[in-house]
Amino acid sequence: MTVTSSAQQASAGNPASPTRKRIGVLGGTFDPIHTGHLALGALFARTLALDELVLMPAGQQPQKQGSTAAGHRLAMTRLAAQGLAAELAVTHPSTQVIVSAREIERAGPSYTVDTLRDMRQDAGPDASLSLLIGSDQLVRLDTWHAWRELFDYAHVCAAARPGFSRETASPELRQVFDQREKSALGVQSTPCGGILIDDSLAVDISATELRAMLAHARDTVTPPANLPEPVWQYIRTQHLYRA
Fold first, then answer.
1. Can you give the residue ranges of every domain in the chain?
2. Whole-model pTM?
3. Domain Cytidyltransferase-like: where (predicted)?
């Protein structure tokens, strides 16, 4: 597994590849990162045959207030990434797991479109770049800042939660689904502009509910089912999410 900052990513450079490079970006508050996030990343690592899976804790999110300090969320992400990298080393060894502090290091509000614009510049025009999200985010994509510009830089790939329905999205957004939907092969073989909705991941984990559980679990020595062991130990050591 590689742990890198946004500045390191920009300067690292990559060897030439005979095929189109495939990069997936899984961002989120990660407060805390849990097995649902990791399952989503693993799903698209396999489905899209990713060369790089980038886990990126959000910085200052305009739509969220009161998140745990960025340093803690980054540390938990790095711990969780180690387990995910070990899993993918067996199931999809060609995928490199990277933890990026790009958004945390950037001053001001953390807009996804800015992140993808920067990543596209780093990756070049030919790489397949995909934003990996849950279906709960997909159906409210039109509330994001400059959301239509996302497709200028990346594909949007969503894992459908149980009970997902396209009908919960706005008519405008449903039209975009119809116009831009691609297969996994279509995403792999093009740089950006598509939407992929995968309904094979039956995982529905709420970080809000997990934090509420952690607030009352200070004397519990066994981690909750949806929390990686190293993340649980970090939470206990740092006394996070205490009621």
1. 22-204
2. 0.89
3. 25-212
